[in-house]
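[audit] Reproducing an earlier prediction to check determinism. Same input, same settings, fresh worker. If the tokens differ from the archived copy the diff job will pick it up downstream; this log only records the rerun itself.
[audit] input (242 residues):
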Amino acid sequence: MPTTPPLPLLKRLPPGAMVGVPWVYGTLFAIRGYFRLPFMPTFTFAPTPASWVLIVAGSVLALAGCVLLRRRPLPGLGLLAMGTYGVTLGLDGLTIGLVHYAAIDIAVGWIAATDTRRRRITALALALAVLPVHELTRIGLRRPLLLAHDTGRGDWQSWSMLALTAVVAWLVGNSVRQSRAYAERLTAQAATQSVTVERLRIAREMHDTVAHSIGIIALQAGAAARVTTTQPEAAREAMRAV
């Protein structure tokens, strides 16, 4: 008995897991300096209770966003971004971590692959606004935008690269959606063609059967017409066959 092959692992994973796993990894990697592990870099400043509150609260918000992503994609993405802000501010980071932003990109790609046009565009806009909003938040909290020895432009230097990754993720998700829609159209077209071919086959069979029957009727009727007066019994047999 034929069985349906299982889906690949990545297709079986819910979007919350695909987003949550890298985000949690990015968070653990970012706070590794608090624990002063051997052979690992450590922070030059001591963690404060306020820092831990921001990190824990941000993690709760981000994980809630991952859980919510399948049913309410845009609110889930918003919570994920807010949680990322919380962890980044708790670590006093000048910019969003690359792994954290990669998790946001995965969420954007999933929304682009599965949701409506309006939500797809809104998700991309949210992803592009993550870094500017983080910069404005630091300004509002009167936190420095640059390191003391840095003469660059801080968070804005990363915006173009990370914005490009968000656009690429969106394009990949949109391409997956278009490919899926095209495959569905091909399947529907193939089903319609199969029905049309079957109808034509039945019509040909009916045509052949009816043509054969009409040919026999014509032969029997012609024979009956010829022997009506000379062989009335044969004529009656022919008409009964008709």
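[audit] rerun output stored. Observation attached for the diff report: The helical segments are 9-12, 15-30, 49-68, 73-90, 98-114, 117-140, 155-226, 232-241.
[audit] end
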